[in-house]
Design goal:
- 2 copies of one chain form a homodimer.
- By secondary structure, chain A is mostly helical.
- Chain A folds into 2 domains: 10-54, Arc Repressor Mutant, subunit A (Orthogonal Bundle), CATH 1.10.10.60; 58-202, Tetracycline Repressor, domain 2 (Orthogonal Bundle).
- Chain A has 9 helices and no strands.
- The longest helix of chain A is centred in the C-terminal third of the chain and has 28 residues, at 122-149.
- Chain A binds a DNA duplex through residues 5-11, 14, 35-37, 45-49, 51-52, 55-57.
Amino acid sequence: MTNQPKYQRRKEDRPQEIADAAFKTFAEKGYAATRIDDVAKRAGISKGLTYLYFKTKEDLFKAVVKNVVVRRVDSLIGNVESTELSSEEFLRGPLLDFMKKVPGSPIAIVIRLLISEGPRHPDLVNYYYDNVVARGLAAIRQFVARGVERGEFRREALEHQPHLFLAPMMLSMIWRLVFTDKPLDTDQLMESQIELLLAEMKA
Amino acid sequence: MTNQPKYQRRKEDRPQEIADAAFKTFAEKGYAATRIDDVAKRAGISKGLTYLYFKTKEDLFKAVVKNVVVRRVDSLIGNVESTELSSEEFLRGPLLDFMKKVPGSPIAIVIRLLISEGPRHPDLVNYYYDNVVARGLAAIRQFVARGVERGEFRREALEHQPHLFLAPMMLSMIWRLVFTDKPLDTDQLMESQIELLLAEMKA
DNA sequence: ATACTTAATGACTAAGGAGTCAGCAAGTAA
DNA sequence: TTACTTGCTGACTCCTTAGTCATTAAGTAT
């Protein structure tokens, strides 16, 4: 009968582990229905320990959202800014790929949480806007502008807000969040929209 | 000193009054954060009375959602089906007007609630899908098909899912729910999309 | 007036869950 | 081995709130 320790001390890893467990639980149950006890169980620790690393439930929530955002967005938006593709190739390629990925990614979960809990956490909303939405829109705007400069697109192309590129992505996301069992070819939707916009911009 | 009664008995009106108060409270706070006591106060009654008309909080929630849906959707979708306009006029006129109204209407609130609480109320999601989404999509599809029959649109126009018409409406709704203070010309967005699609379908 | 029905009240119960903290034991150093 | 620090536990407190129910009083009929 070996003397197995009841637990290991792992000060360094705990915060991330707790955040991961919390994200999964928030994703499944939403903020209000999530019990700290569940998060702790999932992380394999006691409830009390959660409070050593996060002062309150709200604290944990905010940390989790920011954590997901920074971990994902940099890689997704970042590589977009350093491409050598033509504007058209970029819109059809990397941008489309990016958009296809989002509805099934943790970003979609974060958006669900922001829709539900946003009004009670305005600073979180602002954080998300600055770090995700504003950057994403700027990236698209930049590529359209570059296309105009190079003569690929008409001048009026800029009239088409970048939001129009993202609209089908938004619908796909919500659709999949709410109507999980109703099929919808969301990839097709986004492809069509890109072609629609490209046709307009080039015409 | 007149003998004012403490309350009036109004069996007939109570359910609707409670439902209205509940809708407002759910809209402000979300399902979990709404206390039955708040709803009762808002409706000007005692908490106990709520339970005379609605068995549980969940019951009340479902009743409220269905109540809003049936009251709004019939008028919005209904008149759409009996128009004499050409397909193109219809898409530019009544459909566009409808779409412009939705993001600021109670329907948007219901969608927020469905996004947050949907997973825990699958029958509600199905109800909403059947009565709103399916009917809305069918209406658009029908008008595009009619346009094709009449030779207004190309055959391939049908490839463009009705979802594409609704995508900017979806984005506008979410935008306004989450980023209430960030301006966005959502009407312009929807107009552009309609024009984009019409151009494609006629080309 | 009087008796009766039931809409409506509000105090109460029970349960659940956020946050606390005294004590325990894993790791560390001498 | 012993003394010490601190990551970690889990039982506890306290508050909130869904749901109940004995009681009250508004409306009605006779």
